[in-house]
Write a structure and sequence with these properties.
Blueprint (H helix, E strand, L loop, with lengths): L53 H10 L2 H7 L4 H4 L28 E4 L7 E2 H5 L3 E7 L2 H11 L5 H10 L4 E8 L3 H9 L1 H7 L8 E4 L5 H6 L9 E5 L5 E6 L4 H15 L36
Parallel strand pairs: 3-4, 4-5
Antiparallel strand pairs: 1-2, 1-5, 3-6, 6-7
Helix pairs in contact: 6-10
């Protein structure tokens, strides 16, 4: 029997109204220093498979306090952290991080759309290329990452990807699903993924199930797994730009500018060590002889 609304009363909404947060929203600031890991990523790091005996894996799991961190972490903590700025925790820097001070994007291992039976390393795909890496774990995060890279929302970036693809600019998509049930559902939907993803991008679309620790997430400013993150990574796997959450207009323009600047750096005049630049000497200006002074007459 269908419930009736009492006369003079408005029907109740299907979802509860959103309650305003009790605490004040934090002020978002631009990244002030590079993010990433200090170690150079190597294929095989953060391995998705562990061939050690079960007993050894259990002992190492509890000795590393990884279990305590996961069990003590509230289940809805990540969703609670999205109450401010829809989970956005920082603003993207308007300029590239310097190559000398930039830090590394960690290696991740998982399946790809091209081959869902073997594991592949992201470092092999990133090395020697200029990559715009989207890291997501939920549909919410995927929509946020698309606000940076989707051709309809950022057509300028799509144009630069088409123009600079011969120079190594590419898009990489990483879906992290550590929940076994969700990972199984995502794996069943690989056929749908292949239909909506261009075939040339299949080997750059990863499904990662394990190997990402809390330390790794903290290093790359990805502490909230429900939020989408986008990174600009150079050929040495260094993070040169980063953004998270819903993209602003300034962040979209910043991503396009930094991608062009990374692939096509401005020409610089470099000097050899120990040599002093010599300024060109201008040719002396020849001046005519001054007119001879007339002799003074004696008075």
């Amino acid at each position: 029997m269908k419930a009736r609304t009492p006369p003079g009363r408005e029907p109740l909404p299907l979802t509860p109204p959103e309650k305003p947060p009790k605490d004040k929203p934090p002020i978002l600031e631009h990244l002030k220093k590079p993010i990433g890991q200090p170690e150079i990523p190597v294929p095989g790091d953060n391995c998705a498979s562990d061939f050690r005996p079960l007993r050894e894996r259990i002992d190492d799991y509890f000795d590393s306090r990884e279990a305590a961190r996961k069990w003590l972490k509230p289940y809805f903590r990540d969703w609670t952290m999205t109450r401010h700025h829809r989970g956005k925790t920082f603003l993207a820097t308007p300029k590239l991080f310097r190559a000398e001070t930039a830090m590394y994007f960690p290696n991740m291992q998982g399946y790809t759309l091209a081959d869902h039976k073997n594991f592949y390393d992201t470092t092999d795909v990133l090395r020697g290329k200029f990559s715009i890496v989207s890291v997501v774990s939920e549909q919410w995060a995927e929509r946020q990452a698309k606000s940076y890279t989707d051709p309809q929302q950022n057509p300028a970036l799509a144009a630069e990807l088409e123009r600079l693809k011969d120079k190594g600019l590419q898009k990489v998509f990483i879906n992290i699903e550590e929940d076994m049930l969700k990972a199984f559902i995502v794996r069943l939907s690989l056929g749908h993924w292949r239909k909506i993803t261009p075939k040339e991008d299949w080997h750059r679309t990863f499904l990662v199930k394990r190997g990402i620790t809390d330390y790794t997430r903290t290093d790359i400013k990805m502490s909230n797994a429900k939020v989408g993150h986008v990174y600009l990574v150079d050929g040495h796997c260094k993070i040169r730009w980063a953004g998270c959450g819903d993209a602003t207009d300034e962040e979209r323009e910043s991503l396009v500018y930094c991608a062009k600047r990374l692939v096509e750096p401005p020409a610089r005049v470099t000097l050899e060590k120990g040599r002093i630049p010599v300024r060109p000497i201008k040719a002396p200006v020849k001046l005519g002889k001054p007119p001879a002074k007339a002799p003074m007459k004696a008075t």
